[in-house]
Structure formats: C-alpha cells, structure tokens
Design a protein that fits this description.
The protein has five helices and no strands. The protein is mainly α and 113 residues long. It has one domain. Helix 1 packs across helix 3. The N and C termini lie close together (11 Å). The relative contact order is 0.19.
Length: 113
C-alpha cells in the first residue's frame, strides 16, 4: 500500500480491531500498532517502549475514527507522539514534521496488517 491511508480503510481496520480486542493489549488495535512500530524500527529509537507508544497511538486513532475523521491530523498527532517519545540524547530534536513519513508508514502498516 502506498500513498495516504484513507479514512474508510483506517476506520474499518480500527473498528474491526476494537471488536476483536480482549482488553489485554495482546489483541486489537494496540497489538497491531505495536507490530507496525516494530516494523519501522521503533526499538532503535531508544525512547518509550513499543507498548507505551502503541497505547497512546490507539487514543489518537480513536479520536480520528470517532471524532475528527481526518487522517492527516492523525498522522501529525502520531508524528508528534513519536517525537515526544524518542530518546533525547543531546538535547536537540528535529521538529515533529520530520516524523511525518514514519507516522504515515505506521498507519499504512497498521491498516495493511
């Protein structure tokens, strides 16, 4: 899958994951987001754990699917989450916009998984 993720595809995946969730983090949207983050190499970022970032990302996707319905906003919010969750090794961080391609990749992988 290339290009931006459509709202319909995101909502369909998210709602299906919510229905299948057992509330344990091992199933549902959190598990799928954990796999997507792992696939882009999040472990090497040295910041927050995959599980913690995925848990926050679930909230971002829920706000998109049940609220604003804007996938571009969800991408920006995930990019900001990634920026805030990375290890700050030398006191400098790139802007959140630098994380947009990675955030788009996470959403593509989440929907395609």
């Amino acid at each position: 899958m290339t290009g931006p993720v459509s709202f319909d595809a995101l909502a369909q995946r998210f709602n299906a994951d919510r229905r299948a969730s057992h509330g344990d983090g091992a199933s549902g949207p959190e598990a799928r987001l954990t796999r997507a983050l792992d696939a882009i190499g999040w472990r090497s970022a040295g910041g927050e754990s995959l599980d913690d970032v995925a848990a926050f990302a679930v909230q971002i996707l829920a706000a998109c699917v049940t609220g604003h319905r804007n996938t571009a906003t969800a991408v920006r919010d995930i990019a900001d989450l990634m920026r805030q969750s990375m290890a700050d090794l030398d006191g400098s961080m790139p802007p959140a916009s630098a994380f947009v391609p990675a955030a788009e990749d996470v959403l593509r992988r989440y929907v395609a998984d």
